[in-house]
Amino acid sequence: xxxxxxxxxxxxxxxxxxxxxxxxxxxxxxxxxxxxxxxxxxxxxxxxxxxxxxxxxxxxxxxxxxxxxxxxxxxxxxxxxxxxxxxxxxxxxxxxxxxxxxxxxxxxxxxxxxxxxxxxxxxxxxxxxxxxxxxxxxxxxxxxxxxxxxxxxxxxxxxxxxxxxxxxxxxxxxxxxxxxxxxxxxxxxxxxxxxxxxxxxxxxxxxxxxxxxxxxxxxxxxxxxxxxxxxxxxxxxxxxxxxxxxxxxxxxxxxxxxxxxxxxxxxxxxxxxxxxxxxxxxxxxxxxxxxxxxxxxxxxxxxxxxxxxxxxxxxxxxxxxxxxxxxxxxxxxxxxxxxxxxxxxxxxxxxxxxxxxxxxxxxxx
Amino acid sequence: xxxxxxxxxxxxxxxxxxxxxxxxxxxxxxxxxxxxxxxxxxxxxxxxxxxxxxxxxxxxxxxxxxxxxxxxxxxxxxxxxxxxxxxxxxxxxxxxxxxxxxxxxxxxxxxxxxxxxxxxxxxxxxxxxxxxxxxxxxxxxxxxxxxxxxxxxxxxxxxxxxxxxxxxxxxxxxxxxxxxxxxxxxxxxxxxxxxxxxxxxxxxxxxxxxxxxxxxxxxxxxxxxxxxxxxxxxxxxxxxxxxxxxxxxxxxxxxxxxxxxxxxxxxxxxxxxxxxxxxxxxxxxxxxxxxxxxxxxxxxxxxxxxxxxxxxxxxxxxxxxxxxxxxxxxxxxxxxxxxxxxxxxxxxxxxxxxxxxxxxxxxxx
DNA sequence: CTGAAAGCGCTTACAG
DNA sequence: CTGAAAGCGCTTACAG
Lengths: 365, 365
Description:
Two copies of one chain form a homodimer.
Chain A: H1 11-18, H2 22-29, H3 37-50, H4 56-63, E1 69-74, H5 80-93, E2 99-104, H6 109-121, E3 126-129, H7 139-144, E4 148-152, E5 162-166, H8 168-181, E6 187-190, H9 197-212, E7 222-223, H10 232-240, E8 248-251, H11 256-267, E9 272-276, E10 290-294, H12 296-311, E11 320-323, E12 326-329, H13 338-341, H14 347-355
Parallel strand pairs in A: 1-2, 1-3, 3-4, 4-5, 5-11, 6-7, 6-8, 8-9, 9-10
Antiparallel strand pairs in A: 10-12
Chain A binds a DNA duplex through helix 2 and helix 4.
């Protein structure tokens, strides 16, 4: 049989079976003009009988058309935030028939570089990137060769590509501002990894808000150290054992919020807590009145839109979209999980609507 | 310039620049034997200067080697369970340098069929599938043509492919059995979509356990209807308003558990609840003593192992791995989230260890 | 309406 | 150690 090495029939096999030339078979199957209906029918039948599946790789090689694949490179595909991003990206990409190739770099710049290389060799048309920390200037050469790159959630170091981020300074500032407004004066900040841009930005906002409120920035109330990852619960517990303990806490990083909640609960403390993105069903938690700052869906959608515009040929300088943070009061969201899980695309309306939601109940003392 | 249409330099460009033949350039860059070191050096330099990236598509076309890509087709990539599966699959695939192409069918059989077709045309070597409901016999032709297919979490209708599932009948049976052991006699069952295999299986287990305990199977205590999705909270509330209300509840489906918790909390009821897979941080919830049946990581890992074996040439009849369910007591998991999120690979040890964990506290009345 | 030729970017035999 | 030829599965011009 004229089967290819991979065991699949080729267009040549179909053509032979239908008794036509290669080109006619190609035309018939691609629905091009200029094929007699009877001929086309014979070709389609041969194709069906053989179980023919056009080789998309060969096709794009021959035609020079783009591969219609987009790479999505994130820190971890299993992370809830990233999963939400992925879902949105897929949905926006869907109508365009673009395939999604995913890979996780685990915040390791070297792994990111290797992933980018692999995806480029596979000739993805575009890369959607939640950048690992560190220099990514090697992307410049790829962009010059036509690769579309859009960064998401964090800026891109060393290249000027399109980015979509959230104003995390404002996110930190507002959370603290609301705590202050509720009467808190001792506000803690939690973040294991200050190398993460989002954490660093939220910390800046935290400091700005304290300063604006003329509150002292007590370093004892700030946990911002990679090393703490070893025993985070002990670190949080130590912080809470401060002689003048915090009455509110801002948790700026994935998992830090959960750790904080566990410790707070175990010690039987009553703190107001603000967390970011990674908390599920906050209204069902032991201590509901959290602030939630979320944005996976908005970020994913906005970044994918930029990407599609570039694929459609948009030129011009890199665009940097900064989205306002969204605040969701977990207590207010009771029975309305969609507020947490599905932020509307019209983020301005949302942030305006939710920004006035009541927050903390004031110091527990 | 000798650039390709896509704006990228080709191997021919590199060869020309290095002043060698195409074949020598190929050999040098692929690290094959029989190239003078000086020649190889010149080629590598030319490659670097040009920013050459070998076209993997052309390479696998020419060499006839597999494309080194695996398709992961799930109901929804943003779903927590699926995200956990994806993460595990990626991790197991990683060392083999297999790329992951993901797509969601949303439990729509037609979409699944279209996705499979697209992935086949892209010549993925294998498909990891969380099957949508309905017939999938069309996969037989692809399998015959060399596609490796492994189903995951649900069986595959119409084809005999490798599958990895959890014994959901046992999962339903055991949850109910434990409720019964704790003194419950009125036990409710929740599941919106009986077309989902996992839900149907858990329902079977539920009925078996009631029967074994000689408890009547009261249809009033079973919510198993697609239509209820419209207003699930009202449906759950109605169930709880039964004159002889349930004291325990088994929630067999994604999101049903959350809904149940919301309603239970809103009504101020005290029910023991068993949920599956989709609950985060159960130890932090208002009413901690849940049973949790989980398995994303085990399922993903086991399925990927089967897939790799097939890619390595394993022949023989389809294998059907059925994993025992894992029970995690949320109260017992307090401070030990890994019990919930990372089930060990040695599931036998786990299920044995956790099966004896204390469950419910008995009827609240 | 149909087809023979050349080529996409690479590799596999086969020679030297 | 190096290279010219043929081919992977398809498409794009170019002819009839």
